[in-house]
Amino acid sequence: MDVARAALGLLDRISPPPATEEAAAALAAELRPVVRGLARAYYTDGQSLVGDTQYDRLFGALRDLEAAHPALRTPDSPTHRVGGAPLDRFEKVRHPVPLLSLGNAFDADDLRAWYERVLKGLDGVLDEGERPALAAELKIDGLALALTYEDGVLVRAATRGNGRVGEDVTPNVRTVRALPLRLADTPPARVEVRGEAYMRRSTFEALNERLAEAGEKPLANPRNGAVGSLRQLDPTVTAGRGLDFWAYGVGPAEGDLPARHSAVLDAVASWGVPVSPERAVFDDVEAAVQFCQAWAGRRDSLDYEIDGVVVKVDRLDYQGVLGQVATAPRWAVAFKFPAREATTRLLDIEHNVGRTGVIKPLAILDPVDVGGVTVSKATLHNADYITSRDVRRGDLVVVKRAGDVIPAVVGPVVEARDGTEEPYAPPTTCPACGEPVERAEGEVDLRHVSGGCPAQLTRAVEHFASRNALDVDGLGKKIAVLLVETGLVGDLPDLYALTAEDLMPLEGFKEKKVQNLLTGIEAARHRPLARLLFGLGIRHVGETVARDLVAHHASLDALAAATGEELEAIDGVGPVVAESVVAWFSDDENRRAVERLRERGVNLERLPDEPVATPPDEAAPLAGVTVVLTGTLPTLTRPEAKVQIEAAGGKVTGSVSKKTGLVVAGEAAGSKLAKAEELGVPTVGEPTLLALLDGTATLADVLPAPPDAEEAPADDAAAAAPPDDEGGAGEEQGDLFGAA
Fold first, then answer.
1. Contact between 230 and 191 (Cβ < 8 Å)
2. CA dist., res. 684 & res. 702, Å (int)
3. At residue 725, does pLDDT exceed 50?
4. Alpha carbon distance, N-terminus to C-terminus of the chain
5. Do 274 and 397 have their domain in common?
């Protein structure tokens, strides 16, 4: 459709308005795609196909038709751009697939180290010498959104929230003129477009001028402007804020998508959704490093804020192989630009007590603006950090927002000293309870010698009740402090003994607040075991490790009985974690706490919907066989082959050695095939691999037969069996996996 020609033709037909509803519907159906096309050309492509007055006449005609005939207003109508009725509140939205956060690389070496981890994660998938291509794009500093389109029409827009649950801001997002309410081209039947809403610097400055003229408080920075604009309950306010949007990827989709991230963004752009114009694909990590470093020096030339560059593995199947750790993908990383820095006075150094007894120094600062955020406190990491930089109370110090988020003291401005500054001395006792503190060998943090610190308990209660642990509704930091200070909670199990009679006398508590807290505590009795384990605050046991431990142990009792060797056998659990878990359950006080939790009806068992580790299947077709893939297979991609081999009990590695059991070779197999022949490793093609996988062939058909073993004399048969007290492999496996 020639949008400009259609627009000019409609100008002669919009006045007077149609006399019948049928004629109004026909005219509205013509106006909508024309007004939509003019807006896309202007806001997305930077083209003015008609004059502003002409556009306003067409837009006004459509608006008037829908006002006179409300049934004509469709979800994708351009008139949604001016906003709608104010909302009472934002509804919560659970994302069908979580929106992950990103790991950070703060310099070129960090980015190279991430790439090495990518190569290691793709071991067995890549050809000899192959390097996966990397896609890079600017990291806009705004608010993450997930936009759901059905049959091309925007039906829902949600904020990222905590990655799993966000807020429905659809009415506000419909006012963002850069976003299409109906996708162009041929998008999937249902697709979630993910991206970032942001405010341009020029828009931000103009908005602050308007706010100042109106006597209102100006916004701190463009990011705050974007976040605040999208969280307005009145969409008409959002409509006047001039927000923009860039897509950075696609979430769940019903329909085919390209095989590479860069091609996905091209497809998204063809649908009419803006994507970053500053993006590129590189064949090696060094080119990506140069791209990142170049933009670090050019960030201030842009009309929008960026805080880094996002680098991703371009092939989507490789992304699938790499997977994720906790809440961050292994296949992507954010190259963060040097933090914004400022200089201010260090007024004091305080010490906070963590939930595990760690004593952390905290800088108290003369408030200073750092990158648009007022900073009055900053981390000093640990005592070694302070002494190595000779940071003193009273110093003029350089403060940065590490990763543009967490404030940190970089170091002192030594030339500005006047002799009144006080050198730092690490505390020997806890600032909260006066108990001795010490630093264990090999650690950098000071820690309580004994337990019982109220500040430590407060942090433990706060962590126990946090959203990712037991999620006790109504129990935040202030209430945790109050419960500990009043003596109502002396340890974690005490939470489950609280009554209305205990809580009503407390300051700020009324009947409804008391009931809400007790309801939240009651619900927390029945949380999944992995969340309880995480909530206990065992050192080195985060959310992911907690899930791994529970997958192998059906109860807290089974985990408490596990040995360090058994724990280390779990993928993802190393000696440090294993030692910490064993030590925690060996402590008499902790064991008593577990018993008290049991007495108070807290769930200590793995729930049916929690993941369970699958024990090795000795009867699996490739059980225990190390497989190397080389060359191009006729029908299977490398990732597909790896998944099927591992599902059949095999292990895929990237290099051939004496331990390799089988090499699967395809077309143009290279040095791996030669190495296999040199070492005498059996080599097969894809047909034989498929036969092994579906059971029509066995390893005995493929692998060379072992040398004939000498038969033991009948009299020696008993001697060949292991003594009863040593236990066989079956018994060991039962101990490790029996609970599963």
1. no
2. 8
3. no
4. 62
5. no
Q: Are 155 and 199 in contact (CB under 8 A)?
A: no
**Do 501 and 516 fall into the same domain?**
yes
| Each residue's pLDDT tens digit, 58-74 | 888 888 888 888 888 88
Type and span of the H or E element at 662: strand 662-665
Give percent of the chain with pLDDT exceeding 90. Answer: 49
How much is the pLDDT for 43? 57
Reported as a pLDDT band with limits 50, 70 and 90, residue 439 is confident
Q: Which of 386-390, 391-395, 435-439 tops mean pLDDT?
A: 391-395
Mean pLDDT of 118-129: 89
pLDDT of res. 720:
36
Tell me, yes or no, whether 404 and 476 share the same domain: no
Task: Consult the annotation and say whether 266 binds a ligand.
Answer: no
Q: Is 54 annotated as a binding residue?
A: yes
Tokens of 661: 């059991």
CATH number at residue 196: 3.30.470.30
**What mean pLDDT do residues 596-612 have?**
94
Instruction: Judge whether residue 697 has pLDDT over 80.
Output: yes
**Of 649 and 183, the one with more pLDDT:** 183
With CA atoms as reference, report the closest residue to 65 among 104, 3, 13: 13
What is the spatial distance between Cα 552 and Cα 555, in angstroms, rounded to a whole number? 9
Asked if residue 617 lies in contact with residue 649, where contact means CB atoms within 8 angstroms, the answer is yes
Of residues 392, 342, 386, 384, the one with CA closest to residue 367: 342
Least confidently predicted of 105-119, 618-632, 677-691: 618-632
Give the Cα separation of 346 and 379 in Å (integer): 12
Helix, strand or coil, per DSSP, at residue 449: coil
| b/e per residue 429-452 (b: at least 16 CB within 10 A) | ebebbeeebeeeeeeebbbbeeee
Residues 67 and 111 in one domain: no
pLDDT in tens, 250-297: 999 998 899 999 999 999 999 999 999 999 999 999 999 999 999 988
What is the pLDDT of the chain when averaged over all its residues?
Answer: 86
Distance CA 673, CA 17 (A): 77
Beta strands in 100-217 (DSSP E): 103-105, 134-140, 143-150, 153-159, 165-167, 190-198
Is the distance from CB of 12 to CB of 240 less than 8 angstroms? Answer: no
Share of the chain above pLDDT 70, in %: 91
Nearest CA to 158 among 252, 92, 210, 246? 92
Asked if residue 294 belongs to a domain, the reply is yes
| 156 is an annotated ligand-binding site residue | no
The CA distances from residue 570 to 281, 548, 574, 582, in Å, are: 37, 8, 8, 14
CATH number of 379's domain: 2.40.50.140
What CATH number is associated with residue 677? 3.40.50.10190
DSSP-derived pairing of the beta strands 683-684 and 662-665: parallel
- DSSP letter at 69 equals S
53 annotated to a ligand binding site: yes
State yes or no: 292 annotated in a binding site. no
Is residue 651 annotated as involved in ligand binding?
no
494 and 428 share a domain? Answer: no
Instruction: Provide the number of structural domains found in the chain.
Output: 5
- Binding site annotation covers 522? no
196 has binding-site annotation: yes
Q: Which residues are catalytic?
A: 139
Strand partners, 107: none
Residue 128 marked in a binding site: no
| Domain-terminating residue out of 526, 555, 589 | 526
Sorted by sequence, the CB contacts under 8 Å of residue 583 that are 6+ apart come out as: none
Domain co-membership, 159 together with 63: no
Q: Is 344 part of any known ligand binding site?
A: no
Residue 353 and residue 359 in contact, taking contact as beta carbons nearer than 8 Å = yes
Domain interval for residue 486:
454-526
- In a shared domain, residues 230 and 184: yes
- CA-wise closest residue to 334 among 313, 315, 307, 372: 307
Q: Is 658 annotated as a binding-site member? A: no
Q: Bridge-partner residues for 269, per DSSP? A: none
Q: Give yes or no: residues 191 and 292 share one domain.
A: yes
